[in-house]
From TrEMBL:
This is Galactose-1-phosphate uridylyltransferase. Residues 87-226 form the Galactose-1-phosphate uridyl transferase N-terminal domain. Residues 119-145 are annotated as: Disordered. Pathway: Carbohydrate metabolism; galactose metabolism.
Length: 392
């Protein structure tokens, strides 16, 4: 295999080393090496003969709700539960022309069939400008039927490990800290792209959630608008006050719903949980997104988050499906009032039962809780306490 050596690696927090390169079709690939990694500086060159990237998708506005719907037909071609020897997120081999040329610790790359991008509102590096790009939130919020815009932005895949199966919770403390550093670095970089309004790191885990790759990985979406969920949150803050997250944290920390608490973070089942398994994690001070967290906050988050996920898995004899969603403040608005927070949700309501969204939830957005939050917190706290503290 042809090899390349990175001439300008960058050392980030906790000793993580960042090594950027490109895939054969020009997509960005970034290796994030663990501190003390056994990997050398050289990495393989992607020599695949790849066709052109799909055109940037188009989004359409639902005039009844104001939501923008990205119509990304190229996503129909993505891999679906491939065998281990054809894992597209494993390091390339002679028999597996995967997306990542070399063995890695953590790797981040642009999605081959993204929901947003690669075009941006303005040309940036080798990313083209969209022909009909939104120029701001005022344009997006304007009324009218039949409105469409180019789905500018960026979608990235974050590989937590070269192993074929697992999740964030199966990683070591060191590896978890490397992933957190990657989230912070990518949040800052994606927030600076033209047209990007919000950056969203997340992990989908389990076939019951719709996961099509068992490889331990997450994603990062950089949206060209402020998402509906965050728009609702901003309205709530306008109504309740700019200190809403501070007051939420005070109330939850004084409740029986706390699962784990450290110097910098608290995990709890929220007062009005929708899902049978739902946990939120809040930092103790106001930070808008991962890029604003300190080394000390990231250092504590790694073992706390791992223990929480391992406790969730300890509830039953088989791994628990979930969505782990890192809600961050928009890039250009609300940064002094919207606090970074994690929301983990799972439809699992028993060992062999899932909660499916029926008419009230799916059609009307009127939720019915199956499990009292205090009961869920008691069970989850016991499960977490059965898991050893994460030391390695």
């Amino acid at each position: 295999m042809n090899m390349t050596e990175f001439e300008t690696p960058e050392t980030l927090g906790a000793g993580v080393v960042k090594r950027p390169t490109r895939l054969a079709d020009g997509r960005e690939l970034i290796y994030y090496d663990d501190p003390g990694t056994t990997l050398g500086a050289e990495r393989g060159i992607d020599t695949r003969d790849l066709g052109p990237r799909p055109d940037t998708a188009t989004m359409r506005r639902d005039v009844l709700t104001g939501d923008w719907i990205s119509v990304a037909a190229a996503r129909q071609n993505r891999a679906f539960l491939p065998p281990a020897h054809l894992d597209p997120l494993a390091p390339q081999s002679e028999t597996n022309p995967s997306e990542i040329p070399s063995l890695y610790d953590v790797a981040v790359f642009e999605n081959k069939s993204p929901s947003f991008g690669p075009a941006l509102a303005e040309a940036h590096g080798d990313a083209p400008a969209a022909a009909d790009a939104p120029q701001g939130l005022a344009d997006l919020d304007a009324p009218g039927l039949g409105r469409s815009r180019t789905s500018v932005g960026r979608c990235e895949v974050v590989c937590f490990s070269p192993e074929h199966s697992g999740s964030f919770g199966t990683q070591s403390r060191t590896r978890a800290r490397t992933v957190i550093e990657a989230w912070a670095d990518r949040t800052a970089a994606l927030s600076a792209l033209p047209g990007v309004q919000q950056v969203f790191p997340f992990e989908n885990r389990g076939e019951a959630i719709g996961v099509t790759l068992p490889h331990p990985h997450g994603q990062i979406y950089a949206y060209p608008y402020v998402t509906p969920r965050t728009t609702s949150l901003l309205r709530a803050i306008d109504e309740q006050g700019d200190d809403l997250f501070t007051r939420i944290l005070d109330v939850e920390r004084a409740s029986e719903r706390v699962i784990l608490a450290g110097e910098h973070w608290t995990a709890f089942v929220p007062f009005a949980a929708r899902w049978p398994l739902e946990v939120h994690v809040l930092p103790h001070r106001h930070v808008a997104d991962f890029s604003e967290t300190t080394d000390a906050e990231r250092d504590e988050l790694a073992p706390l988050y791992l223990r929480l996920l391992r406790g969730i898995d300890a509830l039953y004899d088989t791994p628990t499906p979930y969505i782990a969603a890192w809600h961050q403040a928009p890039v250009h608005t609300g940064r002094d009032v919207v606090r970074l927070n994690l929301q983990i949700t799972s439809p699992r309501r028993a060992a062999d039962k899932l909660k499916f969204l029926a008419g009230s939830e799916a059609a009307m957005g009127a939720w019915i809780g199956d499990v009292p939050p205090e009961t869920a917190a008691e069970r989850l706290r016991a499960a977490v306490e059965s898991v050893p503290e994460v030391t390695a």
